Amino acid sequence: MKILFVASEVHPILKVGGIADVVGSLTKEIKKSGHDVRVAMPFYQPLKDKKIKPLNKVASLQIEFNKTSENINIFETFIPGTEKQTDVPVYLFENNRYLSNKSVYLDTKSFLYLKRFLFFSQAVLRAFPALNWKPDIIHCHDWQAGLIPLLLKIKQKQSTIPACPAGRNNQQSTIKTLFTIHNLLIQGRWNYTQVLKCLNLKGNEIPSLSEKMQGSYGDDFNVLQQAILNSDLINVVSPGYANEIKTDSYYARGLENVIQKRKKDLIGILNGIDTDFFNPETDQFIKRIYSIKRLDLKNFNKLDLQKKVNLKQDVEIPLFSMISRLDIQKGIDLVSQAVDEIVKMGGQIVFLGTGQKEYETILEKASKKHPGRVAACIKFDQALAQQIYAGADIFLMPSRFEPCGLSQLIAMRYGTIPVVRSTGGLRDTVENVKINKKLFGLIKQIQGTGFVFNDFSLPEFISTIKRTLEFYQNKRNWKQLQIRVMKQDFSWSKSAQKYLELYKKLMDTNN
After folding, report:
1. What are the counts of helices (DSSP H) followed by strands (DSSP E) for the chain?
2. With bands split at pLDDT 50, 70 and 90, how would you rate the model's confidence at 60?
3. What average pLDDT does the segment 468-484 reach?
4. Superfamily of domain 2-188+222-272+493-508
């Protein structure tokens, strides 16, 4: 099969959020099964500044967009592996007006925020003749690639998708689409009339275009809505989140009617992580590599982390951590209210991330209020993130909702115990710790992989923190729990097989 992933970012070429991790890892896993997998993403200015290598210009083309003719250059690089470069090509689309100016994600109050990815979607569909390659399946990720299923359906209906010039690629088989929703919260919305004008559409090309949503721009054009309605199959990134958005309007984020229309074509596939990259036995970012057999070496990373972020160095102090986008989805408001109590209970806490200014300020004030106990690192830093996973004892992730979550999986990989709220992918991946049998006061059997609470409330969160700290005091039992979580398999192999099943299902219905 020939499969094109279309996404706004891919690790390790460029990473802002979790999409990059998924695309970077899943493509390599699919490639192992012998399929022709490639990736398309914009060639942003920050990416150009990185001067990535290798980088080869492979095609040029022109497209009509917003009533102007735009030039596009396509460059090719590859997703690098841990030991040697893989042969997963990444096509970088360069255009000075829309794609290769300014930062990766633009101001959501500007129409350019949306136009960038409207343009990118059109460019991808027009690029196949220039690349002399045509996919069987386009795997689209989140709203940034969400216009592709709509445009593809319109063009296939009009029979205007150009064929590649030679060989098997000349066959006019129908390209199928799989749309992966990483987060329903961000949907890609703008004024309906302006979007159609930009795309040179009348609104009657296919039935879904008649569907508008009332919102910030009057009659809104919603890219995510159109993606759900027009993709051949849809998936979200955990079974738990799939069930939530099908049954609860809070999680569906205004798209409950659309989701109900396509619920038979929507499934949940749990994300994995790149277990080669996130590996305490080989991680080049951390002070000392360690393993289940040499778990004692993790303490060297704890001391190094404490020193690096100006916390008191003491391996006996329970060290909490949170690596996150700082907004209310991730429960940062709950954690910020609990900081004083965590310090009162004898703990330390280190934060890493950026987000809402309000919470950045709250965390910075907390670090000044509790010197040596609270560290607020308001930035994105991949190396420091790895050091936190390796050095912390406990990882906090009390999300209001969580489509999947990768951080709790990475934390467990490093023997750092998660404290999570029971929602979405967190419910699917973290089992609440239970003690089954006791013998002379010693734990005979431990079940579970973390500490889980249900209600999004400060009292229940604090109660769970207390339970975690009580468990932490018994070093023998804590070590058993660390070993248990480090043995969990969150590699992409199982999930990749489920994606392959979806691809096969799409191919079996091809015509």
Report:
1. 19, 20
2. very high
3. 95
4. Glycogen Phosphorylase B; (3.40.50.2000)
Contact 35, 174 (CB under 8 A): no
* Encoded amino acid at 367, one letter: S
pLDDT at 254 over 80: yes
Token couple for 13 = 């070429």
pLDDT in tens, 379-410: 989 999 999 999 999 999 999 999 999 999 99
- Radius of gyration, alpha carbons of the chain: 24
Q: Give the whole-angstrom CA distance, residue 228 versus residue 147.
A: 10
Q: Dihedral sign for Cα 450, 455, 457, 463, please.
A: negative
Domain boundary assignment for the chain: 2-188+222-272+493-508, 295-486
**Phi-psi region at 302: left, alpha or beta (left = phi > 0; alpha = psi -120 to 50):** alpha
Q: Where are the alpha helices (DSSP H) in 200-310?
A: 223-230, 239-247, 249-252, 256-261, 298-308
User: What average pLDDT score do residues 3-27 get?
Assistant: 92
- So what's the architecture of 295-486 in CATH? 3-Layer(aba) Sandwich (3.40)
Tokens read off for 339: 């900081």
The structure's pTM equals: 0.90
Calpha distance 460→451 (Å, rounded): 12
Q: How far apart, in Å, are the Cα atoms of 289 and each of 93, 296, 343, 385, 480?
A: 38, 11, 29, 15, 19
Task: Measure the CA–CA gap between 362 and 335, rounded to whole angstroms.
Answer: 11
Say how many C-beta atoms besides its own lie within 10 A of residue 458's C-beta.
15
Structure tokens, 192 = 């309906």
What are phi and psi for residue 47, nearest 5 degrees? -75, -40
- What are the pLDDT digits (tens) for 446-466? 889 999 999 999 999 999 999
